């Protein structure tokens, strides 16, 4: 456990958000399934990415990191570990849900374990569809989960609004099977940008998936092809710095792709909606400066952008009116119950926020007082609190601040480099 203490202030300067965690998970997994050597860069060693590397290695990939360059030699097609393989996924929902069907497609018996909140995060969608496809699943509820058997091709019917990670996992696994398969959604898709990212990276690694009404058709017998690829910057992390601008900072964001399929690219128009002034420069950077007056309140549909909710709510907490964030029920099954922990963060700092059944109702106030925030072992809550501290009257203490290591280990280092005042925590 570590506690960070932050004083109010302003950030200024250039910031390149880290490589996208979602893109890196996918590229590492595809490279592990490809014949030959792939080179991926830049890769930042967050805890979640370490978990994906660890699982890929346990399944037989050889991986080495030199600086920010990750070289991956794919799993040999005939490679199977005898017995049951232990696959620890840390706290990473993506690692767990992407690799369950992939291990089953490889015919690898395995036990998946997890830490923090991961053992309690849902896997029921797989428990419902994998046994019918030849994979026995043993669990006393969540993790550990033991899988046993070879995944068979066929029709996979599953909801689109529990977690898109189940769909991504199947999209990675089904091309490896002998026969053709279909994924059919039984409820509307949420987090659609993450599926677009999966399809984009699959196609870069030579795997084709055909969209059909209400789902996808996936041909079996496909081969992943090794690839040299650049991991694009992370729009979800960029959102924290856009909030910094909303709270008085003058920041230039560099290295982001405007043609990205990341759903969280929506952060840009959303923060412009709050009043942040954004100047797109010829070199592709974005200069972001504070609103000319108060932050403007706005209602936000979070169905496609769950990871933005904590920082959007914290920004709305200083707006000139009420903001409603809706279609965000999935936030309850992330690293923390993010509707509860975001509301608690805002209240701890003197703001006003109520949980609703599917989101948050945020009543804007003029400033945060300061106070102590429970980071709830949730990186996005810790980073949102750190940005709120810029606009507080007094000090902000954040418990569990080490949670940033899940996605952005250098976050506090960058925060201080840009002129922020955080102390009391080891800066990685
Ligand atoms: O596929 C991905 O990379 C992710 C999908 C999203 O999850 P859900 O689809 O469960 O909302 C998101 O919250 C998570 O941080 C990363
Ligand atoms: C929910 C997240 O990740 P995961 O589901 O991969 O644990 C996240 O990064 O906010």
TrEMBL record:
Native source organism of the sequence: Solibaculum intestinale
Function, in words: Catalyzes the transfer of the enolpyruvyl moiety of phosphoenolpyruvate (PEP) to the 5-hydroxyl of shikimate-3-phosphate (S3P) to produce enolpyruvyl shikimate-3-phosphate and inorganic phosphate.
Lineage of origin: Bacteria, Bacillati, Bacillota, Clostridia, Eubacteriales
Catalytic reactions on record: 3-phosphoshikimate + phosphoenolpyruvate = 5-O-(1-carboxyvinyl)-3-phosphoshikimate + phosphate
UniProt subcellular location: Cytoplasm
PROSITE patterns in the cross-refs: EPSP_SYNTHASE_2 (PS00885)
Keywords: Amino-acid biosynthesis, Aromatic amino acid biosynthesis, Cytoplasm, Transferase
Documented EC number(s): 2.5.1.19
Gene3D superfamilies: Enolpyruvate transferase domain
Binding site for 3-phosphoshikimate: 21-22, 26, 163-165, 191, 307, 334
Pfam families, alphabetized: EPSP_synthase (PF00275)
Domain of life: Bacteria
Main location (coarse class): cytoplasm
Keyword set includes Signal: no
Gene assigned in the entry: aroA
Subunit description: Monomer.
Entry protein name: 3-phosphoshikimate 1-carboxyvinyltransferase
Catalytic residues (positions): 307 (proton acceptor)
GO molecular function, one term: 3-phosphoshikimate 1-carboxyvinyltransferase activity
InterPro entries per record: Enolpyruvate_Tfrase_dom, Enolpyruvate_Tfrase_sf, EPSP_synthase, EPSP_synthase_CS, RNA3'P_cycl/enolpyr_Trfase_a/b
């Amino acid at each position: 456990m570590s506690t960070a203490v932050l004083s109010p202030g302003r950030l200024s300067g250039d910031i390149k958000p880290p490589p996208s965690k979602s893109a890196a998970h996918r590229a590492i997994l595809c490279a592990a399934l490809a014949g030959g050597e792939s080179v991926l860069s830049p890769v930042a060693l967050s805890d979640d990415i370490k978990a994906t590397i660890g699982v890929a290695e346990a399944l037989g990939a050889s991986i080495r990191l030199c600086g920010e360059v990750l070289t991956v030699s794919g799993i040999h097609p005939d490679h199977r570990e005898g017995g049951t393989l232990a696959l620890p996924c840390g706290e990473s929902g993506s690692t767990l849900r992407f690799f369950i069907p992939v291990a089953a497609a490889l015919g690898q018996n395995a036990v998946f374990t997890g830490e923090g909140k991961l053992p309690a995060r849902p896997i029921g969608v797989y428990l419902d569809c994998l046994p019918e496809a030849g994979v026995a699943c043993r669990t006393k509820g969540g993790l550990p989960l033991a899988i046993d058997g070879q995944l068979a091709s066929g029709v996979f019917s599953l909801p689109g609004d529990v977690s898109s990670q189940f769909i991504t996992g199947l999209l990675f696994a089904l091309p490896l099977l002998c026969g053709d398969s279909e994924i059919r959604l039984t409820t509307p898709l949420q987090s659609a940008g993450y599926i677009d990212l999966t399809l984009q990276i699959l196609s870069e690694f030579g795997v084709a998936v055909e969209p059909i009404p209400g789902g996808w058709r996936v041909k079996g017998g496909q081969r992943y092809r090794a690839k040299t690829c650049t991991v694009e910057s992370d729009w979800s992390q960029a959102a924290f710095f856009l909030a910094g601008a909303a709270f008085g900072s003058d920041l230039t964001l560099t290295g982001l792709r405007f043609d990205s399929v990341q759903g969280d690219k929506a952060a840009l128009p959303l923060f412009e909606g709050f009043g942040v002034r954004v100047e797109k420069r010829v070199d592709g950077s974005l200069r972001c400066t504070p609103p000319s007056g108060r932050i403007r309140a706005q209602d936000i549909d979070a169905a496609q952008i769950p990871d933005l909710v904590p920082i959007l709510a914290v920004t709305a907490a200083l707006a000139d009116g009420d903001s409603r964030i809706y279609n965000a029920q999935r936030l309850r099954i992330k690293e923390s119950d993010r509707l509860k922990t975001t509301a608690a963060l805002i209240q701890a700092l003197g703001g006003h926020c109520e949980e609703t059944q599917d989101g948050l109702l945020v009543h804007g106030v003029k400033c945060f007082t300061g106070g102590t925030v429970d980071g709830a072992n949730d990186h996005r809550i810790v980073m949102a609190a750190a940005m709120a501290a810029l606009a507080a009257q007094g000090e902000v203490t954040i418990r569990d601040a080490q949670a940033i290591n899940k996605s952005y280990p250098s976050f506090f280092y960058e925060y201080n480099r840009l002129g922020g005042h955080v102390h009391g925590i080891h800066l990685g």
